[in-house]
Amino acid sequence: MIIPIFKPLGQSSHQLAAAIGAKSGEKATHTGTLDPMAEGVLVVLTGEDRFQKAQLSDTKKTYSFEMLFGISTDSLDLLGLPIKIESTILDPDTIRVSLTKKLPDFLGTQKQLQPIFSAGRSNGKSFFEYGKSGEALPAPKSNEITVYSLELTKCARINREKILTLHSKKIGTVLGEFRQDEILAAWHNITSALPSTVVIATLTAEVSKRTYIRGLVRDISTAIDIPATTFSIIRTQNGRFGMADCRQIESI
Q: Does the pLDDT at position 124 exceed 80?
């Protein structure tokens, strides 16, 4: 079967595909990995349809995502340790102007450096596994990607305490061992270093396969010279499948 399903926050794509395989009694795989901190349309393939993986993976994907300005992390999202903090209060209008100016530079075909924490593999292990074990990470590779559209839809201030509460809640959804205790402690320790308000920008993007939204956030942050990390990712379209096409796991 070809099963479009909504992957919830905190679960890995592999965990969801495995659960569907167990429920259906068939071997299962999926197209287009979503990180634990991402949610949205995942296409799970069971039985003979598993052999359509390459074809169904080679599609455009659409995302809505949020950038949290004022902090960067080693994982490029909330499931990471803080590495850089901007202690001054940022102005959303200034960030809006900077983004409006720089976003067109990211359109088209380009090389994107793969995040060091990712589903990419080296020597039979995923980069996530290297990071969790504390082993030296292999050099990340670059992928050729295409960004078909990239638009800023909102830019606003948000209270520091609300951000920290939401961060803790999101980390609490993560299944498996991804350094959660260490990450929560590190974010708690930087509370006093963060300004009373931070800025979140909401964007939409249509991209090719192999595009990491976290990588796009990293590169946009670098381009406007303000630390940022990925606050949320929702995949709204995966090839021909959209949110309205998603099934509930209970119906399988």
A: no
Residue 233 has pLDDT above 90, yes or no: yes
* 125: containing domain: 61-238
Length of the chain: 252
- Determine contact, residues 36/76, Cβ cutoff 8 Å: no
* Same-domain pairing of 71 and 192: yes
Give yes or no: residues 229 and 131 share one domain: yes
- 44 and 151: one domain? no
More confident residue, 140 or 100: 100
Residue 161: give its domain's CATH number.
3.30.2350.10
Would residue 49 show up in a list of annotated catalytic residues for this protein? no
Provide the pLDDT for residue 130: 66
Point out the least confidently predicted range of 16-30, 125-139, 164-178, 238-252: 125-139
**pTM for this one?**
0.93
For residue 132, the model assigns a pLDDT of 61
* Catalytic site residue from 35, 49, 93, 245: 35
* Distances, alpha carbon 1 to alpha carbons 29, 60, 160, in Å: 11, 21, 45
Residues 136 and 233 both lie in one domain? yes
Is 176 in the same domain as 224? yes
Domain count, the chain: 2
Identify whether residues 24 and 86 lie together within a single domain. Answer: no
User: Is-contact 53 191, C-beta < 8 A?
Assistant: no
